Amino acid sequence: MKALLSFILAAVFFTQTADAQKIFSTRNGKISFTSPADGEVKAVNNEVTSRIADNGQVTFSLLVKGFRFQLAEMQEHFNDQYLESNKYPRADFKGNIVNLKDVNFAKDGSYKATVKGDLTLHGVTKSITANGTVEIKAGKPVVSCKFNVTLKDFNVSTSGVGQTIAVDVSCQYQ
């Protein structure tokens, strides 16, 4: 009886271990943006929290006030007039790698990835799709991605700034 119980427990343990997903994370990911209409409008946030799992789940979260501009006046306008960061303090993304079969988290290499999910910005959530790269280095993912965001889609007033921003994401995971 003890042998049977031990066998069952071992089988359950090894089955759960084999199916367990591996999750990588960072607290110092980088997201930057530039206005194609005005190259002077650009900022970077180096305090992005992100997770990526080998089952394809991807999340990003950041404080809007974490974006740093070259000029303090731009940063003030960004937080007060455009993104209203006191009212909408966070931006979040939750999605999945849609071509997961093309990404091998167990083998070093560079893999093209398409991510689809929901971006929440300025209190509005919209579905987005973006293409990027997942590079596995020494068993750890490094993700890079570029995409455009149309500000009016997120109810952001764009007077004097342009309608679209180019977003650049870069994260090294542990």
TrEMBL record:
Signal sequence bounds: 1-20
Matching InterPro entries: Lipid/polyisoprenoid-bd_YceI, TTHA0802/YceI-like_sf
Record's keyword terms, sorted: Signal
Domain Lipid/polyisoprenoid-binding YceI-like, chain residue ranges per copy: 15-174
Gene3D superfamilies to which the protein is assigned, alphabetical: Lipid/polyisoprenoid-binding, YceI-like
One matching Pfam family: YceI
Protein name: YceI family protein
Organism: Sediminibacterium roseum
